[in-house]
Amino acid sequence: MIAVDGPSGAGKGLVTRMLAERLGWHRLDSGALYRVLALAAQDAGIELQDGVAVAALAPQLAIEFAGRQESDERILVNGQDWTARVRAETAGDLASRIAALPEVRAALLQRQRDFRRPPGLVADGRDMGTVVFPDARLKIFLDASAEARARRRKLQLSEQGVDANLIDLCVEVRARDARDRSRAVAPLAVAADAVVLDTTQMKPAEVLAAIEALLRQRGLLD
Ligand code: DC
Prior knowledge:
Layout: E1 2-5, H1 12-23, E2 26-29, H2 30-43, H3 51-57, E3 63-66, E4 74-77, E5 80-81, H4 83-87, H5 89-98, H6 102-113, E6 121-125, H7 128-132, E7 138-143, H8 146-159, H9 166-182, E8 195-198, H10 204-217
C-alpha cells in the first residue's frame, strides 16, 4: 500500500499513474469518488451542505474506472460515461465542498478501502496516509507552489482545448487548498511518517525516480 497525498495540482494524478504502471499495481483516485458524489447530489437537486442526504446517495452509485493513462481514462457511473464532467474544474470545486462534511467522508471510507487488493494499491488523495490507509508501507506528500500548480493546470486545460486565465486558476487553487486544509474532518495534512516531496522544480520522471529510491530503501523494489 502506497499513499500519495497533497494539494490539487501537485502532480499526484500523473505520478500515481506512472507508479501503478511501473509496479503493476492498482490505483485509487479517491478525489474522483468525491467528484462523482458531488455531481450526483447536484443532479438530484440535493443541497450540498446536507451531509446526511449527500451521503445517502453514495450506495446508489456504481462507479467503475477504466484505462491506465489520463488519455484513455473512463469513469462510468451507473453505466454512463461521466469522464468529462468528473474532470471539469467545477466538479473539483463541488467535491471540495462536500468533502468537508463528516457524513460524506464516513460514507466513502470503506468504499476506498475496498480498492486495496493484491498485488498492491497506489492511492491518490488528501487523507490516504492520515485516515484511510494509516498502515501504508510508504506515504508521500507531494507539494508544489500554488503558482506552479496553477501553471500545470493551465497546461492540462489547454491540452483539452480550454483556455483558462492563470491568475484566476491561481486564486482557485489557493481557495481550494484553504478549504481542504482547514476543514474539521480529515483535513489535508502531512502524516507524521510521510516523506514530503516539493515538486515545484521537478519533472514527473524525477518525482517517479525519487519515489522509486524510497521504495528501494524500504525493500519494496529491486
Ligand atoms: O484530487 P481531486 O482534485 O480530484 O479532489 C477533489 C476534491 O475532493 C478536493 O479538493 C478535496 C476532496 N478530496 C478529499 O477531501 N479527500 C480525498 N481523499 C480526495 C479528494
